[in-house]
Automatic annotation (TrEMBL):
Domain of life, source organism: Bacteria
Organism: Candidatus Galacturonatibacter soehngenii
Record Pfam families: FMN_red
Molecular function via GO: oxidoreductase activity
PANTHER family the UniProt entry points to: NAD(P)H-DEPENDENT FMN-CONTAINING OXIDOREDUCTASE YWQN-RELATED
The protein's name: Flavodoxin family protein
Length: 185
């Protein structure tokens, strides 16, 4: 029996309310003939997670509160690579990005595991790589280190590979191309 090879499928989730780096990265990856989807979350309606446990006990894996996440999360389940592009806010994701990512637990494994002496969860679906790009023009070293540390922790918990990047809003095409190369490795 032949082992099925999983085709790379990239999803970019971008809070492009104050930048267009996500769109530039999407265009760059499309030119490289990558299978990539772009989801702009600047104006989506994703309600907060109310910690009601409905997704665990009532509608297993689906939020009982219907919103635009019903469109977003199935795309993430099928993706092998997630790229999050967000304005940096105090060393973390923007409010809109955080709201979308808080409900990603819907497609996470319900169990915890110990890996390398660390408590981790795995993701359902095909995800193998996670990248996050924080955008901020005047980013302090402390804020950059906080964001990088957060992303490393997310990568560990999700049991995937990936990396964090911090760019300015007016980043060069060469910076975008370098990230595209890292994503494609």
């Amino acid at each position: 029996m032949k082992k099925q090879v999983l085709r790379e499928n990239i999803v970019i989730i971008s809070d492009d309310s104050r930048q267009n780096v996500g769109k530039q990265l999407y265009d760059t990856l499309c030119k490289q003939k990558k299978e990539v989807q772009y989801i702009s979350i600047g104006n989506v309606n994703v309600k907060p997670c109310y910690n009601c446990a409905g997704c665990t006990y009532k509608t297993y894996g689906k939020c009982v509160v219907q919103d635009d996440g019903d469109y977003i999360y199935p795309k993430l389940l099928n993706a092998t690579t997630w790229i999050i592009v967000t304005p940096l806010m105090w060393g973390t994701y923007s409010f809109q990005t955080k709201r979308v990512l808080d409900k990603v637990a819907l497609i996470g494994d319900r169990h915890y595991y110990v890996s390398k002496k660390e408590l981790v969860k795995r993701m359902q679906g095909n995800m193998k790589k996670y990248f996050a790009i924080g955008i901020k023009d005047e980013c302090s070293l402390e804020e950059k280190e906080t964001f990088t540390s957060l992303i490393k922790e997310n990568i560990t918990i999700m049991s995937v590979t990936g990396e964090a990047f911090v760019l300015r809003e007016d980043s060069s095409q060469e910076s975008i191309l370098q990230i595209a190369r890292e994503v494609s490795k």
